[in-house]
Amino acid sequence: MATPAMEATTALRNLHLTLIDIIYPMNLPSNTDGLTKKTVALVTETGQGLGTPGNDGWHSRADGIQVQVFYAAGFSSDPEALEGSIIRGLKSAGYRAQLSSGPHTVDPDTRQLTATLKFEKTKGVSY
Questions:
Q1: pTM of the entire structure?
Q2: Phi, psi at residue 100, to the nearest 5°?
Q3: Whose CA, among 12, 35, 61, 104, lies 20 to 30 Å from 124?
């Protein structure tokens, strides 16, 4: 069984977004030389919650994931257009965007713009 981060990574890769150069699940590689020249998406898990109690068990699970986008230094396209494509694409794959997504930040060392988008997907389970 794939982890929630791996499932979301597959869904994101299936969107074939040309403005993202590389998508990593779970963590960045130890050697990040040259990544400032690429737009990178990192997909990680934010937690899980059980729901729909009944018959001494749980019947749904909400998996939280986040997509951090590290824009290439000198990124010349509209970041909002890329982020909108991610949100619409993951929505079509069954994810709900969360309102708690963070603001854009700029890395003080690399000067890269960064965005964090949070999502949740509910699945039927039997625990």
A1: 0.88
A2: -85, 10
A3: 12
Q: pLDDT tens, 21-66?
A: 999 999 998 887 778 999 999 999 998 777 766 777 777 788 899 9
Distance CA 41, CA 22 (A): 6
End-to-end CA distance of the chain: 16
**Residue where the block lists tokens 């890329």:** 82
Question: Among all chains, which residue has been given the structure tokens 């590290």?
Answer: 70
CATH number of the domain residue 62 falls in: 3.30.2000.10
* Percentage with pLDDT > 70 across the chain: 95
Domain residues for 36?
4-124
Q: How many domains does the chain have?
A: 1
Positive or negative, the CA dihedral 26, 118, 81, 89 is positive
- Count of other CB atoms within 10 angstroms of residue 21: 14
Query: 81: which 2 tokens?
Result: 């257009």
